[in-house]
Amino acid sequence: MSIEFITLAPTLFHVFKAGEPHPKKAKRIIYGQATSDANGIATFYFTDNALATGNTLLSTIDYAVASVFSTNPLINSRPRVQMREKNIPAKYVSANVTNISGVTVLGISVLGSENPVSGVIVDFMIVGSFDT
Asked: Is 130 exposed, middle or buried (0-12, 13-18, 19+ CB in 10 A)?
């Protein structure tokens, strides 16, 4: 596995195929964070510049997870994360999905009690394939 840091973008891990003299990159693991907005939506762009205008780092998502922790005293219990797993070539995965000009974006809902919560940091981890 190798780690590739892209300035102002998500952290990128490469997973190599084992048992070959010159291993090829088989998968990518991408980690990043996003903060929920006023509607309780945390939007994570897994692009080379972490913006909707960037080039996507994945062509297929195999698995995606999100985690939330908040110390906000106004939230009675730990916020829940709505998340779905899918494997959709060249698309996106989540409960709230947006595709802006072909750029891949992962969005989830952050809920505290029954209402959307803003300002919550969400950790994302995505495993997927990419075009070489």
From this structure: middle
Domain ranges of the chain: 2-129
pLDDT at 106: 60
Q: Is the CB of residue 12 less than 8 Å from the CB of residue 6?
A: yes
Amino acid identity of residue 5, one-letter, is F
Give the Cα separation of 8 and 64 in Å (integer): 21
Between 18 and 7, the higher pLDDT residue: 18
Say what the pLDDT of residue 111 is: 57
Check if the beta carbon of residue 92 is closer than 8 Å to that of residue 84.
Answer: no
Strand partners, 2: 14
Asked if CATH classification 3.40.50.12240 holds for the domain at 2-129, the reply, yes or no, is no
* Closest to 34 (Cα-Cα) out of 102, 101, 96, 114: 96
Q: Which residue has the tokens 């495993």?
A: 127
Q: Is 79 exposed, middle or buried (0-12, 13-18, 19+ CB in 10 A)?
A: buried
Nearest CA-CA partner of 9 in 129, 124, 131: 124
Per-residue pLDDT, 65: 74
